[in-house]
## 1
Amino acid sequence: MTRLPRLSPAPRPRPLVAGHARRLALLLTMLLAMLLSAPLAMAASPRIATLDWTLAETLQALGTPPAAVAQIEAYHDWVGEPRLPESVSDLGLRNQPNLELLADLDPDRILTSAMFANLTPRLSRIAPVENFSLYSPGQDTWKEMRQLTRGVAAVVDRPEAAEQLISDTEARLVELQRTLPDDVAPLLVVQFMDARHVRVFGDNGLYQAIMKRLGLENAWPGDTNAWGFSLVGLEELADLDARLVVVEPYPAGVRDALAQSGLWQGLKRQSQGEPLVLPPVWSFGALPSAQRFAEQLTTALEAADAR
Amino acid sequence: MLARLVRLAPLLRLSPGIACSLLCLACMALASSNLVEAAGLLAGLKALFGSADAGMDALVLHFSWWPRLMMSLLAGGGLALAGVLMQQVLRNPLAAPTTLGVASGANLALMATTLMAPGLLVVGREWVALLGGGLAMGLVFALAWRRGLAPVVVVLGGLVVNLYLGALGIVLLLFHQQELKGLLIWGAGSLAQNDWSGVAFLAPRLLLGALAAWLLLRPLAVLELDDASARSLGVSLRNLRLAGLGLAVFLTGCVVSVVGVIGFIGLAAPNIVRLAGARRLGPRLLWSTLLGALLLATTDQLLQRYSGQVSGLVPTGAVTATLGAPLLIWLIPRLKLRGDQPPAGATAPTGRHHAPLRLAGGLAIGLLAISVVALLVGQTAGGWSWQPPADWDVLQWRLPRVLASAGCGVMLALAGTLIQRVTANPMASPEVLGISGGSAIALILAIFLLPSPDNLTLVGIGTLGAMASLAILIIFNGRSGLLPERLLLTGVAITAAFDGVRAIVMAGGDPRGQQVIAWLSGSTYYVDLTSGLVVLGLALLLALASSPLARWLDILPLGAATSRALGLDLNRSRLLLLLLVALLTAAATLVVGPLSFVGLLAPHLARLLGFSRAGMHLLGAALTGALLMVLADWVGRQLLFPQEIPAGIVASLLGGAYFMWGLRRL
């Protein structure tokens, strides 16, 4: 603001232009004032604390970063994008957030998910708690994801941002689906725990929801736990007729071990096409993670098709 | 020894050879029926030799089923061989890879490496495991060195090192759940294979080890003589022992780095062979190795056959540990132990304070001061701060935790004092005797099997578990008159069973497993004001209940004859006291988990301070216990702020260190 008067005088001293310049300066001042007032309006939206990374990711994507999140360092390792700003406070462990600190930060609302339901009575002594669920067994995950986004947006009073995020994501998914190669084989999405055991993803998880959205088939017929995966030995993947999709990261040393593993080489040969390797995506995430996974999967499928 | 074996002979008319053949037949029957189910016998056998042009079924058999069978044979044989060597060198029938802490040392080393220098794992997991295992065993030896590596002291040292490293492991796990997921599976001992590389790694090394053992056979046999006669034969005892133990650690390290922690094979196989009548070292080495191989292979085949009915992964190593515990409990009364007398030193009377009441008053003031600090001093978003006492906003979070930790400290300290006095055993405590472990097993089962158990049910079930542990302790040691060492060894076995159950739960990845980890770590986090008040109230009530029993406690350690002469009904008084111990332990375990050493530490500190008569000892220990727990809780909350280290873990790291120090001085 203070710099404006110095900027505004036009170099030529003609009266007519000077009048213009004054009006221009006024206009610029008003514009700047509007720009400055926007963050002020945002600051007036409620201060939110959340334990759940999925909700943190959604808040960030809605343009209303949370005030406090649990295990921020681990969030950046496992969720990655969108990154949280420096100003967000760390609450400690997700299962045991530091209650004193939380009370001291005095948030307006606390958002949690079913995983932390046992903390609700305690948290509600600090601020009203709102519980969101995602990946409930038997529910349409995509519908739940929309509900969750709208619900979170309602808490921060930005319903229009939710609609924007939903329509952007869905439009992008439609676009991506169009670029998919024809007749993609059923996919088997795994993540390595060590060289002999994998998590294989199925119902109640993000990967499954996206594949369904993109019209792709998941080849895992077995049950999954409440987190949407099942822990199995590599040999159990043997009779499945599918294309393997490996989600990074590999634990240390596993890549080398797999290069020598006869069973893995056999599985690779059996896979419908070279296995796809995707960078890490938070497997319990919401719309932002969903879109990232969709982008990566589509890109990988296209690249494999072009080869 | 001889007399015992003669008495056992009608029971066990088994020679080692017959035992092995029987087991071999069982194993082959199981394996071939598994094979028939998978692909048919002929196709299955063909798959062993090649997979080049075969289908996926044959591929799985070739790269997964057969290597797994070979691996179970190799790992079992290797561990049993290591067990025989350790037992021979230490002249200790209870020495084994798991009881000496080698396995848990390797486990912790791998965890730490995964977090801090994952690059090292690529260079060689086995060297990391070897180093960790070697260091842990070194620590156990350092603890037992002064007592000339007496069997019981070695095993006790191993138990504490195991618990201590386990507690450190839980701290790492709490803060790095995601990164360490893979290691949980490994740590529980899964034999799953997907190529021949594991077998190719292990086979030549074990062969080398077996060869070295064969070369050492004659010199090692000399160790059966006593030291003087051995020396007179011109053998360097120290070099011989080092060579034998080094070989055993090498074998263990190799096995552990490939398949993880596999409990009890190394302990059970050599002892079964010995009980079956093999006495000379040569046959014992041979038959133990064979028996160990067959034991593990049979267990694994059984598990492959029936684990399909359980969802998720059931790791073989944890199962053998759980199944092995009853075997160990059965074995203990049948073993001849060198130095079968109570560890002296620690019972030596310490200075007796002339005015114990004044001392107790001082302790109470100390407790009050610590509590005030824990209530009013702490960190907030803006750094350290001192809260005005009337600020309920902050106190509402701190008060329940101070109350609960004080209550648990009192209860564990009382339980420890009671059990130490009843058994006249200075190293006894709810944790070391497996009473906490038994209570924890019962609670884990309750969490998994009951739909939504409330706290009262959990206290009841926990008490039942603690009482079951006590019953086992008494039934299996009653005839030998509750000899301190045997009692402790039975406790080691119960604790081992608990470790197995814990490993199975944690490897499965069930969401309730997370709850169990959180609870096992023993945090006062979940206590609210009402339950905090209840815990402290219960503690005070039970403390009042135990004070009239102080006279018994003064009399009981004087021995059975004296007690009876003084008109004490021995059985009834012991039973009542032990019931009280069970109740105290269960209630405290429910809040701070099974891992704290406060039950051991508080009675000792109280004695060191000069509380010697039973009544005063109880009072002093209760105050000390409360002080320790409140301190541990506060330190745990501040150390890694805003993350909280559970009070139980902090207390066990403190208490474990004290126990090791005490053991070293024995």
## 2
Amino acid sequence: MSVHLDRSKITEDPGHHTAAGRAAEAVAGRSLYADARARFFANKAAMVSVIVLLAVLAFALFGSVLAVWDNETIDWDLIGVTAEHGAPSLANGHYFGVDELGRDLFARTVQGTTVSLMVGVVGAAIAVIVGTIYGAISGYAGGRIDNLLMRIVDILQAIPYMFVLILLLVVFGRSIAMLFVGIGLISWLDMARIVRGQTLSLKNKEFIEAAKTTGVPGLIIVFRHIVPNLIGITMVYATLLIPNMILAESFISFLGLGVQEPNTSWGALISEGASTLQYGMYWQLGFPLFFFVVTLFSFFFIGDGLRDALDPKER
Amino acid sequence: MLFYIIRRLAIALPTLTLLIVFSFLLMHMAPGGPFTAERELPPQVLANIEAKYGLDQPIYMQMLEYIYGLVAHFDFGPSFQYKDRAVNEIIATGFPVTLTYGTLSFIVAVLLGGLLGITAAIHRNSWLDYFAVGLSIGAQVLPNFVMGPILVLIFVLWLNLLPGGGWNGGQWQNLVLPVIALSTSYMASITRLTRSSMLEVLHSDFIRTARAKGLPKRVIIFKHALKPALLPLFSYLGPIFVSMITGSVVIDYYFSTGGIGIAFVNSALNRDYAVMMGVTILMGGLTILFNLLVDLAYAWIDPKIRY
């Protein structure tokens, strides 16, 4: 990952330098990324989403500092009367109320938010790394190798992965680590396809031809010249992948097959909240659901914003 | 065309085989045999039981036998938890239920979604268009496991109009909430897709020509615009089918409809690998079959596709 990021800086930098250099001469030129940044900042929905997302992130990171209770301690005063007296209150320190067992919902929501965000980011990171390398190699190699690699993706995509993922979780034990592995296994397929398409259009460009004629080996061309040029599109799809990973994890946890107690995630919290609706404990569904919905919205808006910013002809 | 069919089959069959082999191997990697009970059996008894179920054979023989049973008699083998029930019976009780509300949801999603998308594109910037856009954005964050509780809260707990779950032989009251919960997010993405593809078609040159020569709007839309606008929807049906099959697990879990999904969840909690594998293979097979049909239909409808 770090290797990719470093190279993205390298590709970005010459743009800034030339822009700065030309500015001294006459009209200020704008690099592709400066242009994209300006367009992104002008997108109100995306900017609001960035702020909201930062707030959610701050909640996940520093929420436990504010919490009076921790996520496992049971408030014995409220047990058995959670429906009557467990509602959110500032007086007893349960800002979001308590769950059916008398545990503090604020602390549990903080914990669920952390887990869900982590699953989303890790899943998307695996997708970016594996998908980019796989797709770039497939597209650049072309011919029989490309055919074979893409048929493998076809085959994997035709399988209803959720069933296989649950099978994996049951066989290898339901842990967060296994959840990461399982979600990572399927997340890269779309990314590989997209990256391959981009690579196909890149590989006939003049600068690749120049590299080839000067005798640069194929793998180095892929990593030094093709992959850096894919950063833009990878970023966009990574942003759109994060909410999908979160959705997948929540789906499994909703069924009680994902993260296990005392750990929790948005899916597990929503599931618990859904089961206590009939007692009128609306807060138990409301708070986790609010964070879930707001975060997914933000990711989708940021992803759309990034896509519009990097690819103006889409609009 | 024949060549295309053969090539498509050449992908579909290995996919199914791979799925079967993979789940079979996975099942055998699981810790503990199916007859490892809390009270340990005498070794001789265990050996006899394993011989009865063919578990003393080498693994590739077991796998070949399983595949043979599957292909020849559609037999998924015995369940490991319910000693008296075969996986077939468990599937046979749940599958009709899943099929009923699944088919309904699929039809609702495709018809309503397509209709809404097309109408929204024709009447661009009307209140209907805004509604369609709002819905397609909103439903992205309202997957079935969120829609379920919200629907129950409104229609069961507050309005007291519908039952909160159960199947009851497929009465319409029991079908309404599952179908809405399962179809909404897919309907929204279909709306989004058809709206944007219809808009693209309406802005293309041949539609402008048709308008320029004075064709009535009705003829332009129904005769020229509709078919190319609906084509992208076709390639989207496969993925939607997969997500809906997956989503049915949540419906069965939350609404207690008794479909195949609840058998899957329970078997996952009980570690009943035989049932899990049976359901996975069945759902995988259905998905592969559906994708095959969609692809063939697509190749038949779209003259531009190369095969």
## 3
Amino acid sequence: MISTGTIFQREINAYFLSPIAYVVIAVFMVFSGYFFSVMLGLTQESTLRYSLAYTQFILSILTPVITMRLFAEEYKTGTIEPLMTAPVTDFAVVFGKFLSAWALYNIMIAPTAFYIIFLAWVGSPDYGAIIASYVGLILMGGLFVAIGLLVSAVTKNQIVAAVIGIVALLILLVIGLASTGNEGWFYSCLSYIGTYDHWDTFTKGIIDTRDVVYYGSFTALLIFIAVRIVESRRWR
Amino acid sequence: MIKVEQLAKRYADVYAVDHISFEVNQGEILGLLGPNGAGKTTTMRILTCYMPATSGTATVDGYDVFRDSINVRKQIGYLPENVPLYPEMRVKEYLTFRAKLKRVSYRERKLKIDECIEKCRIKEVQNQIIGTLSKGYRQRVGLADTLVHDPKILILDEPTIGLDPNQIRQVRQLIKELGEKHTILLSTHILPEVEMLCGRVIIINKGKIVAMDTPSNLESQLKGGSNIVLEVRGNGEKIKNALSSIKGVKKVVWHDKGEVNNFAVEAEKGMDIREDIFSNIVKNNGVIREMKQVVVTLEEVFHQITTQEQEVIT
């Protein structure tokens, strides 16, 4: 656990010592701000619900950019060797990296709190729905980061890690989006696997255990697989 | 301290390390010598628990590298080839990170880091960003990292590669000093380094150990006697016979160039026949223009062993 903290600290520092953190945060703010103002103008409703639907799309593209360097960079520069020959467990390394990327994700979405202040100023938003939306955003972020982390653990190339991560997240979004409202076991399966439906419940102001379990268990599974992948170097 | 038995590592059908066994005793500096691709790095990676062996066992300070990996890693300071470091960190920050990772307690940390900075002479760059450092400094930062948790064993993979001659000298000096306190296993393909630093050498080629001894023993074993090269003016035939009759001469090779003759005389091990050669040639009315004793260096030994040449160097 101590080493997880050590790794977390180093990774967070690395994010803010490189341009990645600033670029990602800036890009996110530009697009989320744009969608917020457009949706507010269109609907004239003091809610975050509509703009957040687009936010998921932006996050699908930006989160892999955050996670792409986690392992790929270490493989490429060879720093993985001193790291893994230090007395740390594979889990501590993977989990520390996961937490740091997740933390950066949360820092990235934090400035959207300004929109709430703005909404409170011009209207009377439903705070319950907003809090639920943020719980959803944070949980979804965990899943997105875990996917990006997993992809980064299998490649030496950061660009490849980012592209595969983005594609994987978009597929998850699209299969959820496309199958929502369709009948039959096939579509209900797809919409369960996809992220869209689970996320939608949160934006309505409902924190459903099923959705929390979906995000939590999916994230845990992916972290577990990532640990195994990092570990697999020792069996090959 | 390190005990390796029948260790093997196979990639597809090729053995990178082919059932090798050796031991490193406490307090010694052991050199792993071999051409590129001989299996040095693979051996070290197995010992540092970075990758597993296909078969065989290795124990470090009594802990098995496969089963007790965390304990092994606590005993080892490992400097990988090319010294990978995080370029965006500052030197002291990096060492603090490594010390934490290696579980140096909070109270000792500052002291230990300062000690390593002192020892590796990187005080003047301790607040610099690693990415801006020269190769020599990076190497020493890497060494400081290996020392920070005060390990019993240091495993250094080609510690002087890519440095300029002055830096090589400094790093070697440093390793020599470290050898007084730590057990060191280092790999290299630079021969004078082994002669200077190591108490014992293992020569490894194509994954197999081909020789294991002290550097001086290896030299004397392999040269199989001393060689003397001569350039003599006089009657070649007569001089050749005279040389052959000297006690202790094993072989005389004669190159006839007319007026001036070249000879290569091979003597038995441990015999100094230079004075006999002189008097015999003078007796036969020869004039010595040149006489040179060929000393076999570790370089030649290495070359011979790894290329498996049977003939003796003239």
